[in-house]
Amino acid sequence: MTLLRIEDATKSFGGLIAVNHVTFDVAEGEILGLLGPNGSGKTTLINLISRALPITAGEIYLHDQKLTGKRADQVARIGVSRTFQLVRILPSLSLVENVMIPAVFGSEGQSIDKGREIANNCLERVGLQHRTDALAADLTYIDQKRLELARALASNPSLLLLDEWLAGLNPTELKQGIELIRSLSTSGMTIIMVEHIMEAVRALCPRVVVMNSGRLIADEKTAAALSDPAVIAAYLGEVDDA
Q1: pLDDT (tens place) for every residue of the chain, 242 residues total
Q2: Could you tell me which residues come within 8 angstroms of residue 22 by beta carbon, excluding any fewer than 6 positions away?
Q3: Which among 71, 82, 119, 193 is least buried, having the fewest CB atoms inside 10 angstroms?
Q4: Which residues span the domain enclosing 239?
């Protein structure tokens, strides 16, 4: 069953078209890879889905509910949550307080006590259960990313948008991160991953969509896409056959 439907999504900034008539669907429970070289429009598309940016043209639906025209907080309450390329946490608050906020004010609107319980569960899920009362400002970069993921999970989203969440992890942390994302999918969560780490894409994403210069250039099974000449050319430049 289709969870997310993107129809002819377009975003322009003056004369620059960052997302150019993009259309695809995402099924419930799917982990979809969103690939493309830097500047291809991937993060802009994530911003359109989450309503961090208004769409110029086209429509986006979640569970057949139109997201276009809604505020970012309304879209979050409908069930869309995300992480960012540049980590966004509340450094002056403790870890549990950081995660309680989306739990209490998210899609299901929990009480303070229930919000604390959810926050503790989410922190345990990302491996931060031993630091619940620490200040977020005292975390390493990697643990800040874990905290941001816990915040994204706290609202119990039906669609999770991960914008290069695995970037910067060492090999051991990368394996842990892949297993964590896999566990989220097996729980029924639908995930779109913007990712450059092909090891993770191959391990997690049966299907990918690929963008270049704002356009969708591939929508196919991962192995086929990664051997597609158009995709290879987008990442590496045109290959001289001479």
Answers
A1: 899 999 999 999 988 999 999 999 999 999 999 999 988 999 999 999 999 999 999 999 999 899 998 999 899 889 999 998 888 888 899 999 999 988 887 656 667 888 899 999 999 988 898 988 999 999 988 899 899 999 999 988 999 999 999 988 889 889 988 998 998 888 889 999 999 999 999 999 999 999 999 999 999 999 999 999 989 988 876 544 43
A2: 6, 8, 9, 10, 41, 45, 58, 211, 214, 215, 216
A3: 71
A4: 1-79+163-168+194-242
Integer Cα distance of 225 and 65 in angstroms? 30
Q: Is residue 67 part of a domain?
A: yes
Residue 152 domain flag: no
Distance (Å, whole) CA 52 – CA 67: 11
Can you give the CATH number for the domain in which 209 is found? 3.40.50.300
Residue 156 lies in a domain: no
What is the number of structural domains in the chain? 1
Residue 207 lies inside a defined structural domain of this protein: yes
Strands (E) located in the chain: 2-13, 16-27, 31-35, 57-62, 65-66, 80-82, 159-163, 190-194, 207-212, 215-221
- H or E element: which one contains 29? none
Interstrand relation of 16-27 and 2-13 (parallel, antiparallel or unpaired) = antiparallel
